[in-house]
Amino acid sequence: MTDNFYTKLKKYNEKGYSSFHTPGHKYGDFLPNDLLKLDLTELPDTDALFEADGIIKELEKAFSDIYGTTASFISAGGCSLSIQAMIRTALDCGGKLLCARNAHRSAVNSMALLGIDPVWIYPQGSGHYTGRILPDDVSRALEENPDIRSLYITSPTYYGEISDIETIADICHKHDAVLLVDNAHGSHLAFMEDNIHPIRLGADMTACSLHKTMPVMTGGALLNVRTQELSENAKSYMSLFASTSPSYVIMSSMSLCADYIKNGSAMDDYRQCEIKVQKLRTAALQNNIPLPDGLCDPLRLTLNTAAAGIYGEDNQQVFFHQHKIECEFCDGENAVLLFTPFNREEDYERVNAAVGHLKCSSTNKQKIYSCVRPEKAVSIREAMLSPSEIISTDKSIGRIAADTACPCPPGVPVIMPGEIINKDIIHELNRFGIDRIKVKK
Length: 441
Ligand SMILES: Cc1ncc(COP(=O)(O)O)c(C=O)c1O
Fold this sequence. Notes:
By secondary structure, the protein is α/β, with parallel strands linked by helices. Helices cover about 35% and strands about 15% of the residues.
């Protein structure tokens, strides 16, 4: 019999790599074997996601208690759905959003559908997808744009950098603006030694990919809402973008996760995991491997392998596969590894061994990110919804991008729809192997 998708995935699993990527349950051990039997649908006894008044409502209440929100809404369509609903909840059609330039493409898609125009705010000292948003830049941008009432940022970033949410939230509130945080990578931050979940620090809404860092099946996410006012319409905006057939298997895994947090050992487990990752971080620093500075996600290890002479995604992958490690993401110079309590002891041993082989003579990090700021020609909506064609990236100079062009992960656009492609952009796209691009006709 020839291999199909299913058998190929099984063969992949047989390779026995340690999982340092999503989902947070890692090997499925947390999930019961009979979970598939709960692949049900909306029935009188099973509640309905978008008219929840039974067991789904109870589950949403459980998450609301866990995260200290006014309301938490379930998504079985990933954090992308939470992000789309979050933006719609904060802004009406045609609104203006102060938006960190390293936004995930789901935010950009949402802006196209809703006709929202971003005013970009650039992360500190970086290029497309990494870096923190600085409070001073937020203050300046809100002063320069007094009509803006919403700020959207990503924290933690794919590389784990965390922005100063508390100060940024204060600034937003002084300007009568709401703070929306793409916290896709930070659902677990509430269970760290210090609770640094953005909701606790004053964010008004957060989109959280539970499945990335908690023991939840892929697709399970939340929209967390801190204030009563914003919570009123959020549910109906979730349904605006969502399937009418949410997966009960995913929602069941979310229920098990809520129980693990409320009644199980989640707090202890996540703190133990934090200590173990900290040991690996210390080992990396002893070998002079550059790590991101400042406040970072405690459960994410971003190793600058380039400083140890391992460049290029293929070489990085060969190196990590030799150590039986599958990373979340290699960008050619950095490798990002995600840990949860569901990693096994041997996983830590493998990373320790890999770190031992990464010897750097100095801590000089290779600077790879150039900050390309292309010129805008038309709105995101016009660019994405007008007639378009796909052409060779090398021939696209001067054309207007009609889609987000991005390596995925991390799903952060190199160029935004509506911007004019220049030679620096082409260089960046080539670097990521993106050789075709959609442009406006
Ligand atoms: C920063 C960020 N936001 C949002 C998303 C979308 O999350 P999901 O895959 O759960 O839809 C991702 C996915 O990787 C992400 O990295």
